Hints:
By secondary structure, this protein is mainly α. 92% of the residues lie in helices and 0% in strands. The chain has one helix spanning 2-80. The radius of gyration is 36 Å and the shape is rod-shaped. It starts with a helix and ends in a 6-residue tail after the last helix.
Amino acid sequence: MHEIVASVQRVTGIIGQISAAAGEQGGSIGEVNQAIPLLDRMTQQNAALVEQSALAAESLKQQAQTLERLVATFRHGQETGVPAGG
């Protein structure tokens, strides 16, 4: 009879541990569920920033090309002895 009681107590202890672990997992799952929308928003914000960066890079590229043309015109004017303005 003592063995049965001891076995029941061990099973009760194991069930208690399983229950505690399940509770901890449930809490962790709740935290993950809260984190997923946050990660999604951050990913969308990062994508928007990448798009803005690409647009800014293209704008800078165009400005650099314009500046290069202007400098080339200025240099050409110096080589011919004609002032750049006329």
